[in-house]
Fold this sequence. Notes:
Layout: H1 2-15, E1 29-33, H2 49-58, E2 63-65, E3 71-73, E4 76-81, E5 87-92, H3 106-116, H4 121-128, E6 130-135, E7 140-145, H5 152-156, H6 169-172, E8 189-197, E9 201-206, E10 230-234, H7 239-248, E11 253-254, H8 262-266, E12 271-274, E13 282-288, H9 298-301, H10 303-307, H11 310-317, E14 324-325, H12 351-359, E15 367-373, H13 377-393, E16 396-402, H14 404-411, E17 419-425, H15 426-429, H16 454-465, H17 469-486, E18 489-495, E19 499-502
Parallel strand pairs: 1-10, 1-11, 15-16, 15-17
Antiparallel strand pairs: 2-3, 4-5, 5-7, 6-7, 8-9, 9-10, 11-19, 12-19, 13-17, 13-18, 14-18
Amino acid sequence: MARPFLGRWLALLLLGGLALPGTAPRAQTLTAVLEAEVVTLDPHFTTAYISRTFGYMVFDTLFGMDRAGRPQPQMVESWTTSPDGLTWRFTLREGLLWHDGTPVTAADCVASLRRWAPRSALGARLLAATASIEANDARSFTLTLKEPYGLVLETLGTAASPGPFMLPERLARTPGTERITEIIGSGPFMYRREDHRPGDRMLLRRNPRYNSRPEPNDLFAGGKPVRIEALELRVVPDGLTAANAIQAGEVDYMQYAPFDLLPRLERDRRVRVLGFTGLDTFTGHYRTNAATGPFADPAIRRVLLRLVDQAEVMAAFGLSSQYQRTCAAIFVCGGPYETTAGSEVTRDPSIEAARAALRATSYNGEPVIVMVANDLEAARISSEVLANRMRQAGFNVDMQVMDWASLLARRTRRDGWHVFGVHAIGIDLQSPITNPFVAFTCSGIPASGYHCNERLTALFDAFTKAPDHAARMRLIEEMQRLIYSEVITLPWGQFAQPALHRANLRNLVPSAIPVFWNVEK
């Protein structure tokens, strides 16, 4: 009985401390513990998920993705398209203001798009198809394409990281390789440097000038009314401490509830466990290295198709069925491009079948290095399960344990690794252009695993020019067959990382990317 009391006492001790200057009253402040500390405040500078979360609080977008994955107008009031689809004219809503009170202009948005696009997979595709983008007047700008591009609105409204957040022109002129030093957006919350104590907490205040859309909220689309005075983001690295603080009433929201505490938390009437589905879930993948070693041979990589058992990986997590599922879709189950094409060979995993398939290859007992990240639970468990099954199938497994940062550094090398487990959120994985596990084929960058399939890159190009969803879906099926055939990446399951919040929160937007508009306390 001593441990819960000690944990709660420790939570209160660590979460206490001096208040920030001018902190809003406790009853009007929502306190949250997110996945990590917000270190990079520039919304274009990094793909880090936590910076994207910060971006949605402080900045705004021209279009916003709704819960079905469709782009809806956000800062934009209206738009027109020429009959040939090459000229797009956008008009901003009236009354949009930056946090310093100055009006948002079309020139601001043009400069922001020019800064963001080269740093985004979708944005770079749009930029390559663009002849010009120019402001017409204070509230309208024109995008002129030099070739057909079928994903204009999807690109402007993407939720993939880094997001297409709008900045004042004077800040957007900062090169994308340099961080902006002044944080001014037009979003629902405002950042002030004096409200930020790095390593401890950050206070974001309600933006009294925010011009919310009139429609009901639909994830990143529609109205974003703020019903609290302030959002306090606290840095609490230990999951047990944060969970105890929620139960004690010192914290209102926790982004990632520890898996092993879920049964206890689900029984506590003071808190609610928030599960997710579809694009808000994570999909795990095994990333393979095609540059060197046994897995440079596609035939040896294909043995994994008979070996990987998603049900076994999910069982090793210890999650109940409501938080996990098997999924053969490279582009996410529950997303707009879900398909089972090419996955038929994975349906009946078998150690015996994998052993026979391995004997039929040129494999000669060479060591296969399985990297295991010991500081990320999902990555660690998935890699350990794979290593065990590979040994049973006849591979000479060299399991090398390291922290995630070291794994990422090792991954940049062409040698010294062959496979590892990783996971990412469905919002990023749903499109072949933003899916980091396949999008970089033939690029030579580390995230590609040094795979190169020219047919796949041609399909990516065709995807961006396809006129409608049906045409894109046909391309998706062909892509997925190639990805499975080459084992560029291989899914190991789809799961939710549930959030935790106090029972007195109302109208919280259910999103794996935490957003705090609409919520009441």
